[in-house]
Amino acid sequence: MQRKKILSIFGTRPEAIKMAPVIKELEKRSDEFESVVVVTAQQREMLDQVLTVFNIKPDYDLNIMQPNQTLAQLTSRVLMKLDPILEVEKPDVVLVHGDTTTSFVASLAAFYHQIKIGHVEAGLRTWDKYAPYPEEMNRQMTDCLSDIYFAPTVLSKANLLQANVPEEKIFVTGNTVVDALQQTTKHGFSHEITKKWDPDSKKVLLTCHRRENFGKPMEQVFKSVIKMVETYSDLEVIYPVHPNPNVKKQAEEMFKNQKRIHLIDPLDVIDFHNCMSECYFIMSDSGGVQEEAPSLGKPVLVLREVTERPEGLETGILKLVGTCEKTILNAVEKLMMDSEYYQSLTKQNNPYGDGYASIKIVNLLNEQ
Ligand code: UD1
Ligand code: UDP
After folding, report:
1. Which residues form a coiled coil (predicted)?
2. Which of 90, 108, 246, 274 shows a CA-CA span of 20 to 30 A to 339?
3. Is the pTM higher than 0.90?
4. pLDDT digit string, tens, across residues 19-58
5. What DSSP element (H or E) covers 281?
6. Best of 75, 100, 267, 290 for a ligand 1 pocket test (most atoms within 8 Å of beta carbon)
């Protein structure tokens, strides 16, 4: 039997975490598939953390990251470097993930070579061009170019239908992040970071890095966090800061004298997932964190005006608070003071997946 050649392309931390279970499944079934892995390394250090954890050895590493890179620089570098690889490899399917610049440009490069494109995590939408920016258009453009759509939920399938994607090309698989989470979380987790924490305090895990939050919105978020620890003396905040200079500078300036707000380097995914499961609640503008938190029963205050992941809003575990101080502090008060409400959030199923998405995706690839 002729093996199918699947060439997977990714470059950032979230894509790597969510593609790792698919790559591992393809590797396991090497009698059916030849798996070729291309990393753009849009995010050098954060990508490498994930590759190490999941023991993925790329066949090609484009190594394109530059400090404070612009979207146009990224786009042109990825496109030019992928072109000769696709020319040589001629895979049956190119797999891309999500909504990053790597995802969109990789699908464009594959289209130029008339190679079939499979989009993992297809169909997420806010329908708002600039929120999140530029991810909403990255995923719309990727979906425009794709041939096989792995939609995580029925809602993402409905979005694709609304965009006139033929139904027979869409497969609801769940999100592969739930598969990844099952491999990373452990009972009895202990880490040098958690050992240093005050055992009697409640931990809040914070992440904030979106381009549309740079400047004023991020300043408002950080002010709310300072107000929050001033109001609740039993709260301690752990913030693994994104290495983007726009984020790092603002976080270091605003939190420099804060004893109960701990700025740390990005955690590897095992440490981060386990810190999630140790904390009391999460504040984040991340996409992936919104999908992971329901599995761990941790409420998330979503620091965005809109989300493409509304399934968790319906269950209540996600609460859209935007970046306005008053809204954020009201939501914190509810979590801190209303224990019945808090408890009701912590016992839920995950609407984003059941842990079998990668197996479903690889089975479907075999049928193409
Ligand atoms: C990108 C994705 C965003 C995703 C985020 C995950 C796009 C358009 N956006 O964000 O959807 O949520 O990744 O983190 O693709 N840097 C380092 N080391 C790293 C990573 C980043 O130094 O390992 C610094 C570099 O200076 C780099 C900058 O951060 O230039 C920005 O990285 P980039 O991947 O461009 O970030 P975003 O586009 O904000
Ligand atoms: N994450 C991590 N270490 C950290 C912070 C986040 O491994 O210090 C993981 C998190 O569990 C999730 C993913 O990174 O799986 C989210 O990445 P990010 O927030 O950078 O991107 P987004 O999901 O917003 O695109």
Report:
1. none
2. 274
3. yes
4. 999 999 999 999 999 999 999 999 999 999 999 999 999 9
5. strand 281-284
6. 100
